[in-house]
């Protein structure tokens, strides 16, 4: 069984206008803006004086493996 292959020039014909949809530019710009705002203004991202979080987890894993 042979497959048909297309031979020839793959250039677009004259007069064909390729345009991007509006969201192809808007979504990356919006994502970049949001990430830039998160980096420049962290807001309430300061460390709290509460529990140890990851430190407690690592300590418990170490205690478990020491048994």
Structure description:
This protein is mainly alpha-helical and 67 residues long. The protein has two helices and no strands. It has helices at 23-40, 54-66.
Residues in β-strands, percent:
under 5%
Total of helices:
2
Average the pLDDT over all residues and give the rounded result: 74
**Cα end-to-end separation:** 66 Å
Overall helicity: 40-55%
What's the alpha carbon Rg, rounded to whole Å? 28 Å
Summarize the structure.
The protein has helices at about 25-40, 55-65. The protein is mainly alpha-helical.
Lay out the secondary structure.
Blueprint: H1 23-40, H2 54-66
Name a few traits of the molecule.
46% helix; mainly alpha; 67 residues
